[in-house]
Write a structure and sequence with these properties.
Elements (H helix, E strand, L loop, with lengths): L1 E6 L3 H14 L4 E5 L10 H6 L3 E5 L7 E5 L4 E5 L11 E6 L2 E7 L9 H23 L3 E6 L12 H4 L7 H12 L2 E3 L13 E2 L11 E2 L2 E6 H4 L2 E6 L15 E5 L1
This protein binds one DNA strand of 18 nucleotides through loops.
DNA sequence: ATGACTCCCAGTGGGAGA
C-alpha cells in the first residue's frame, strides 16, 4: 500500500501534473495541500476519471486540502475538531483500516508575528487531536506540508536559517512532541541521500543549486512502523515546466 | 539586500508563501 503527500501550490494550475504523476505513481492514497480552490471549483470529475475517490475542503485564494484514494474514505473529518479555524488546513479519512490525516501546517511568517502564535496554537491543537485519534485508530498516517524542518540536516544552510521560520526551537519542539505522541518520521527510518529536500524556493535558482528544506513529512504510528518498506521524495515533478515549489513524498507499506 | 519567483485577486499593484 502506498501513500503520498504533495503541496501543489494551486490545483487549478497543477491538476494536469497531478494526473500525470498519478498515472506514473498509482498510489493508494494521495493528500494535497494548497489547492487554493473553493469547494464548488474542485475538479472532482477529472480525478474520478483517473480512478480516485476524493474528499476536499477548500477556500478562496489560500490553503485548501484534498484526500484522494482508490477506495472510498470513511469517517471523514475536516479541520481539527474543537479548534475554531477559518482556514482549510486538514482533511482526514479512514482507508483500508488506516487513519489518513492530510495537513497543511501554517507557515508562521516570522517568529515574532501573530501568524507564528497561530501556528503554535494550531500545532498544539493538532497534537492533542492526534493523541485522541491514535487511541481510536492504532494504524495512523499523518502527512503533509508541516512547514517545519525538524533538524539541521533538513536545511541547506542551517547557519543562515538558525532561528528563522521553519527552524525555530519552538517549531522543532512541536514536531518532536508529535513524535513523542507515538509517531515516527518514516523518511528517517532509512538511509537517505544527504541534502534531501522537499521544497525549493522559486527564486534565485534554488532548485538548480539544490538549496532547499525538508518540510513535507510522513509520520506513521507505532502499529505501522514495522510495515514501512520505503519513504522517498520524488524530485522529478520539481523539474516540470511551471512546477510546484514542493515535491511529493511517497510512503510504501508492506 | 526590505530583492530574486509564483499564485491569486485584483485591476494598471499588493499580499502571501517559505
Amino acid at each position: 500500500m502506498q501513500f503520498a503527500t504533495w503541496n501543489v501550490n494551486s490545483l487549478n494550475v497543477r491538476l494536469p501534473q497531478v494526473l500525470e504523476w498519478l498515472s506514473a505513481h498509482p498510489v493508494d492514497v494521495l493528500v494535497l495541500q494548497e489547492t487554493k480552490l473553493t469547494d464548488d471549483k474542485f475538479p472532482t470529475l477529472e480525478i474520478g476519471e483517473a480512478g480516485y475517490q476524493v474528499q476536499w475542503f477548500g477556500q478562496k485564494t489560500y490553503n485548501g486540502v484534498a484526500l484522494l484514494s482508490r477506495q472510498a474514505a470513511t469517517d471523514v473529518v475536516k479541520n481539527i475538531p474543537g479548534f475554531i479555524d477559518a482556514q482549510a488546513r486538514v482533511i482526514a479519512g479512514t482507508i483500508a483500516g488506516v487513519r489518513c490525516i492530510g495537513a497543511y501546517f501554517p507557515n508562521g511568517e516570522a517568529p515574532d508575528s501573530d501568524k507564528f502564535q497561530y501556528k503554535m496554537r494550531w500545532m498544539e491543537a493538532l497534537r492533542e487531536w492526534i493523541r485522541a485519534e491514535l487511541a481510536i485508530h492504532p494504524k495512523l498516517v499523518l502527512m503533509g506540508d508541516f512547514n517545519v524542518a525538524p533538524e539541521d540536516r533538513d536545511v541547506y544552510d542551517p547557519v543562515a536559517w538558525a532561528g528563522q521560520i521553519h527552524c525555530t526551537p519552538d517549531e522543532r519542539a512541536h514536531f518532536q512532541q508529535l513524535l513523542s505522541a507515538g509517531l515516527t518520521d518514516a523518511f528517517r527510518l532509512f538511509e537517505q541521500p544527504p541534502k534531501s529536500w522537499s521544497w525549493w524556493d522559486y527564486r534565485n535558482l534554488a532548485f538548480r543549486k539544490n538549496q532547499g528544506l525538508r518540510i513535507d513529512h510522513i509520520l506513521v504510528s507505532e502499529a505501522l512502523r514495522t510495515s514501512v518498506q520505503a519513504c522517498v521524495i520524488d524530485k522529478l515533478p520539481r523539474k516540470n515546466e511551471r512546477p510546484s515549489d514542493h515535491a511529493p513524498v511517497i510512503l510504501t507499506l508492506g
